[in-house]
Amino acid sequence: MNRRKKQPKKELPRERVALITGITGQDGSYLAEFLLKKGYRVYGLMRRSSSFNTGRINHLYQDPHDLDPRLELVYGDLNDASSLNKILRSIQPDEIYNLGAQSHVRVSFDIPEYTAEITGVGTLRLLEAIRDSGIQPKFYQASSSEMFGKVQAIPQNETTPFYPRSPYGVAKVYSYWITVNYRESYNMFACNGILFNHESPRRGETFVSRKITKAAARIKLGIQQELFLGNLEARRDWGFAGDYVEAMWLMLQQDKPNDYVIATGRQYSIKDLLAIAFGEVGLDWNDYVRIDPRYYRPAEVDLLVGDSSKAYSQFGWKPRMSFQELIRMMVQADLTEETQRLYGTGYVMSEDENLSMYGQDKLVEVVDAGLRNSF
Ligand code: NAP
Ligand code: G4F
């Protein structure tokens, strides 16, 4: 009998599966893009909202009825352990990026308990869900330079002691240590990325960089007259979010889990940011900026500047985009967005119109309504 020898089944390499909490946020959108380009199947945890909150990832969205969607959104919440358990058991991710958070420092003084629940205990819920589900994914925790707060050394690196100055910063310190604790207690591949401020045209509109670049564009277009800000003396180490998500991924590709500072090593003040943003549209910020104490924080972080030489020596990461390029790019993006919004309102009829003159009062009413109280 001519029996064919049974061939051992050829195993196809299993595609890599990533879960991103906070996929609808600034970093989540850049990370999703990055991982999709690398061939990952990406799941994004999204919380229920009464209005659409997927604006930053609409360009990546795939209809779930498509044959093989590479990106899928699943409903869940860092406040709901059962949803986290269910999601992990069903999708069995190889890598988890925990970016979900109440991420606004000023707002954390208004809703401290909620901030602790999501930005702090939310991380514990996710780590426990990993243990319960029995899977062994690599885990990335979005730690923050806010943990350094009242800085104990300049620049700050992985050995600098923490001194948080807000409910947000305190919650992030909890998440940092619970991540270290689960790594040491349960041998998890868990890393903290201690990221310094990073911005982009997708940055939330109430963070200072975007608030300024948007205002510069709107003032140039004649649809805003002034800009109210808080402390102009604070100094930050600002980088580009697109550069920083690559560092998140690189951390999880190392042989051993570890914690890394990700920063540019350069510091600028809010006044420096103002000068670049308004300079990009040919204006002097001193003519438009007013101080409103409501934007002061009960306790301020005066200066942050990071030393990311560990990340550079371990896996060659360094920032590509300079602060100046970043702010100019954001202003240009806001000019485009605001111009499109203007045309959408129907008040401006042609590109030849003088935008600063046309229907200005009405436009201010329409467009400004939601921005006046922004932190
Ligand atoms: P972001 O734009 O504010 O995004 C936060 C994300 O978390 C959003 O997708 C948000 O969903 C989600 N989220 C909020 N509450 C949630 C909940 N209860 N359950 C599940 N998801 C929830 O923040 P980002 O700038 O992208 O930052 C990403 C992460 O890095 C955050 O953890 C932040 O604290 C941390 N971080 C940021 C920086 C920075 O400079 N950007 C620096 C260091 C660390 P919605 O869209 O529904 O609101
Ligand atoms: O843009 P911010 O709100 O960012 P902040 O507080 O540094 O926090 C951001 O970076 C952290 C990393 O260090 C992240 F963990 C956190 O999630 C977030 O992404 O404020 C920057 C500085 C502050 O000193 C603030 O007092 O700008 C000052 N500022 C002055 N006027 C203002 C304003 N900040 C805001 N948001 N709005 C103002 O009108």
Helix and strand composition category: alpha/beta
User: Which compounds are bound in this model?
Assistant: NADP nicotinamide-adenine-dinucleotide phosphate, ligand G4F
Number of strands: 13
Order of helix and strand elements from N to C terminus: EHEEHEHHEHEEHEEEHEEHEHHH
Q: Within the largest sheet, what's the order of strands?
A: 3-2-1-4-5-6-11
- Report the major sheet: 7 strands, parallel
What is the number of helical segments per DSSP (H or I, 4+ residues)? 11
Radius of gyration: 23 Å
The percent of residues in helical segments reads 25-40%
Give the overall pLDDT as a whole number.
91
Fraction in beta strands: 5-15%
Distance between the termini: 81 Å
- Outline the low-pLDDT stretches: 346-373
Categorize the overall geometry.
globular
What does this structure look like?
With 375 residues, the protein is α/β, with parallel strands linked by helices. It is built from 11 helices and 13 strands. It has helices at residues 26-37, 81-91, 105-110, 112-133, 167-186, 208-221, 241-252, 270-280, 309-315, 323-345, 360-368; strands at 17-21, 41-46, 71-75, 95-98, 138-144, 190-195, 198-199, 227-229, 235-236, 239-240, 259-262, 268-269, 289-291. Strands 3-2-1-4-5-6-11 form a 7-stranded parallel β-sheet, sandwiched between helices. It has a two-stranded parallel ribbon with strand order 7-10. Strands 8-13 form a two-stranded parallel ribbon. Strand 5, helix 5 (167-186) and strand 6 form a beta-alpha-beta unit. Helix 2 packs parallel to helix 4 and helix 6 packs across helix 10. The longest helix has 23 residues, at 323-345. It is globular. The chain starts with 16 loop residues before the first strand and ends in a 7-residue tail after the last helix. The model is unreliable at 346-373 (pLDDT under 50). The structure holds NADP nicotinamide-adenine-dinucleotide phosphate and ligand G4F.
